[in-house]
Amino acid sequence: MNNQFLFIINDIRKNKVYFIWNIIQISIVCVLLSIVLQSIFEYRDVKSKFDKITEQSEIYMFRDETTDEKFDELLNDENKLHQLVELYNSVQKTVKASHGDILSFTANSNKRFYMSDELAKDIAQIWEVPEENKDSLDMISVSENFFQIYQLKIEGNLDQFKKTTEGRIPVIVGSSYQKKYQLHDVIYDSNDLGYEIIGFLQEGSYYIAPGEKREPVYLDQVIVKLSEVNAEDSVDLLDYFVTTYYITKDNDFMKNVVKQSKDNDLMDLNINNFTYQMNAVTEDIKDEMILNGSIMVILFAFCLIAMTGNILQFISDAKREFAVHMMCGAGKRVIMFRIIMQMWCMYICSAVFVILIKKASLTTFMSLALSAVYILFLCLLPIWILRRQTIQTMFKKSYE
After folding, report:
1. Regions of the chain with pLDDT less than 70
2. How many Å apart are CA 278 and CA 105, to the nearest integer?
3. In degrees, to the nearest 5, what angle opens at C-alpha 310 toward C-alphas 309 and 314?
4. Are 171 and 224 in contact (CB under 8 A)?
5. Phi/psi at 77 (nearest 5 deg)?
6. What pLDDT does residue 399 have?
7. 245 forms bridges with which residues in the sheet?
8. Three-state secondary structure along 30-93?
9. Which of 164, 282, 294, 367 is the most buried (most CB within 10 A)?
10. pLDDT on residue 175
């Protein structure tokens, strides 16, 4: 058996160009297959979340079309501030008086978390911070019911999310932070204000923000804090109207808000429908699935043809050697083992590269499992060829 492994190593050495090329092909196919599977799961998950959220109601949001000139006026005019406060209070009163018929939640990603020098050094050890954001991190401020609405799983105590203790602001952070921090660790911003980590989001957590972008917003590297509206701050009030979503069967109350805002010469608001935006999100995911799937099928076909050709070429070139070994007592099973092990060595090397690239995830292991099935079927080729060959035919064909 030891001699057979030496033969396998020697075969790999002699055919190293084909061996490496096949490893590259299998790795690319596995990576693309993993991406396609991830897109499929993402599509199903997004669709499921959306269907559950809109099971009995629709989601609406305000779209702000206020001009820059009017926006500056809203920021600097004290009378406008009072009118904004009245409009905000009116919305809050209507939502509370609806007894659950109108449900609102906030997701404001317009904020940045400016890091202390110590935090910046820690983050640099976890992931590469883009040059344009080297001094700050992604942060969103959300309402307390945000996690329930988007069905986000949290490691930690969500009850502490709204409790500021000892001057420290409670935050929930993405899964990437777990590489450096633990529950109840405190991180500091550039003003030395402390933020206590009271929870970690599950890896791959995301939410859908049609008002911001079409694709899902992933939260692995995001800091999440409780949204608090300062009624004396015009920016907070203006942000509230464009970052708050409303789940309701009809949008009559939102039409009243739009009218009230225009009558008082405040914001120029319109109403956006979540379903329309959501359809765009799912269509983007489907387009990505089709594109990656098409590329994967082409590469898979090329890989199948190339590997099959390489195996046939190797068997043809080594027939005389196989015949000599069989004359010296080697059985066909030993020869088959020698060929098949080369293919599994290619697969193992490819699997290592794929795991390094895509990490250990469900989609990675599924793509590797499907590739293993492909290799398994490919192993039938040398078995079928060698079973039909005799020592005499091998010698004869080796001289043709």
Report:
1. 1-9, 11-12, 53-56, 210-214, 277-278, 314-332, 334, 385-400
2. 17
3. 120
4. yes
5. -95, 120
6. 45
7. 61, 105
8. HHHHHHHHHHHHHHHHHHHHHHHHCCCCEEEEEEECCCHHHHHHHHHCHHHHHHHHHHHHHHHH
9. 367
10. 92
pLDDT at 103: 84
How far is Cα of residue 6 from the mean position of the Cα atoms in its chain? Answer: 43
User: How far apart are the C-alpha atoms of 348 and 364, rounded to whole Å?
Assistant: 14
With the CA atoms of 388, 389, 393 and 399 taken in that order, what torsion angle do they form, in degrees rounded to the nearest 10?
A: 120
Question: Please, which residues bridge with residue 170 across strands?
Answer: 196
Closest Cα to residue 148, out of 189, 192, 100, 207? 207
Read off the pLDDT of residues 327-373 as tens digits, 9 standing for 90 and up: 665 566 767 777 777 778 888 888 888 888 877 778 888 888 888 88
Phi/psi at 169 (5° precision): -85, 125
Q: DSSP string covering 287-356, please?
A: HHHHHHHHHHHHHHHHHHHHHHHHHHHHHHHTHHHHHHHHHTT--HHHHHHHHHHHHHHHHHHHHHHHHH
Distance CA 160, CA 154 (A): 12
Residue of 71, 97, 87, 102 lying closest to 260 (CA atoms):
87
Give the Cα separation of 236 and 297 in Å (integer): 50
pLDDT of residue 199: 92
Please count the CA atoms within 13 angstroms of the CA of 229 that sit on its side-chain side: 21
- Between the CA of residue 232 and those of 67, 88, 163, 226, 229, what are the distances in Å? 22, 12, 22, 18, 9
Centre a 10 Å sphere on the Cβ of residue 333 and count the other Cβ atoms it contains. Answer: 10
